[in-house]
Design goal:
There is one protein chain. The protein has 3 helices and 7 strands, in the order βααββββββα. The protein has 160 residues and is of the alpha+beta class. It is globular. The protein starts with a strand and ends in a 19-residue tail after the last helix. Belongs to the AHA1 family.
Length: 160
C-alpha cells in the first residue's frame, strides 16, 4: 500500500492554520499551487459529503467526492477521497499540533493500492508538497492578527 506523508512547521498558531485549511474561501488560495481545487458543500461536520472541483485534465474530470469522517478542531480533520468516476476510496488526514511557538502540520493521504496507486501517490505527493511548501505559507503570511486576509493581500479578491 502506498501513502503520502508530509510534515511542515509553520510559525503561526494552530487556530490560524486550522482556519486556512478548513475555510472554503481560503482553501482555493493555497491549493492554487497544485490543481487549484475549490471545495463545494464542505463543512467541518462529521458526515458532510462534499466535492473538490479542480481544473480538468486529460483522463480526469477534476472532481473528487469526499466525506468528513472525523473532526477535532483545531487539531484533526479526516475525510475520504474518491475520484467521481469511482475507483478506490482513500483517506486524507490533517493533524495540527503546537510546536515551537507555531504549528506542526502533518498531512497523510493513505489507502493507495497496486501499481496505479503507487503512481497516484507519487504524483499527488509532489503536488501536495508544493501546496504545503508554497501555497499554504503564502496564505498564512497574508493573514492579519485577527486571522483574516489583509485587505491589500495579492491573494484576496481582485479589484477593478
Amino acid at each position: 500500500m502506498s501513502a503520502i506523508h508530509i510534515v511542515r512547521d509553520y510559525p503561526h498558531p494552530p487556530e490560524k492554520v486550522w482556519r486556512a485549511v478548513t475555510d472554503p474561501e481560503l482553501i482555493p488560495l493555497w491549493t492554487a499551487t497544485g490543481a487549484g481545487a475549490r471545495p463545494e458543500g464542505f463543512a467541518t461536520t462529521v458526515g458532510t459529503t462534499f466535492t473538490f472541483v479542480a481544473k480538468p485534465k486529460p483522463g480526469w474530470s477534476g472532481v473528487v467526492v469526499c466525506e468528513v469522517l472525523e473532526v477535532r478542531e483545531p487539531s484533526l480533520l479526516r475525510y475520504s477521497w474518491q475520484d467521481e468516476s469511482g475507483g478506490e476510496v482513500t483517506e486524507v488526514a490533517y493533524r495540527l499540533a503546537p510546536h515551537r511557538g507555531g504549528t506542526r502540520f502533518t498531512y497523510d493521504h493513505t489507502g493507495f493500492t497496486g501499481a496505479g496507486g503507487y503512481f497516484m501517490a507519487k504524483i499527488l505527493g509532489a503536488v501536495r508538497t508544493k501546496m504545503l511548501t508554497k501555497g499554504l505559507p503564502a496564505v498564512l503570511n497574508d493573514f492579519d492578527d485577527q486571522g483574516n486576509l489583509r485587505p491589500d493581500s495579492p491573494l484576496g479578491p481582485k479589484r477593478p
